[in-house]
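If your schedule permits, I should be very grateful for your opinion on a structural question. I have a record of one protein: its chain in single-letter code and its fold written as discrete structure tokens. Would you kindly read the sequence against the tokens and tell me how you understand this chain to fold? Thank you for your consideration; the sequence and its tokens are set out here.


***
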Amino acid sequence: MKVAIVKYNAGNVQSLTFALNRLGVEPVLSDDPEFLQTADKVIFPGQGEASSAMRSLKEKGLDRVLRSLHQPFLGVCLGMQLMCESSEENNTECLGIIPQKVVRFDSSEVKVPHMGWNDIHQLKSPIMKDIQEGDYLYFVHSYYVPVCEETIAVAEYPQSFSAALNKDNYYAIQPHPEKSAEAGMKLLENFLKL
């Protein structure tokens, strides 16, 4: 199986690579449009800030490529947020794959960033197979996608937000699966089986 990790200067891909290795997969870090289009699966990780990440994608022409893919695609953390229409983080126009806006947690209500283990609920998708209601995953983020039509898992901090999204072949998760112990590994394994 040919698994591509999108290379665009916005993410520590080492821990994700190690997690995939534990599942018997040797992913290829690539920003080559042809390779991304022919991979069996594409993973779009991300850490950092939305506007500079989008700038990097556009400079490489990857914004158009990512919107055109037909194979199973998984956005992780910032990758999930960049798949939406826009982000409040520096007023960034994103990829527009998922028709939602990314908003900032209210720091007058909660500590920002939201960091640590949080349980997930309302699971609906083959990517959530064998993950239980109330299982814990590891989150680090200051921005979130509100619960919407594309939501396939919900977490709370303190209001409900999308822990995972799905639209067509595009899947996205806010937590870091590679840091989320057994449930995170199961999520990655389920994605690889799609």
In short: The chain has a mean pLDDT of 96. The radius of gyration is 15 Å. The CA atoms of residues 104 and 137 lie 20 Å apart.
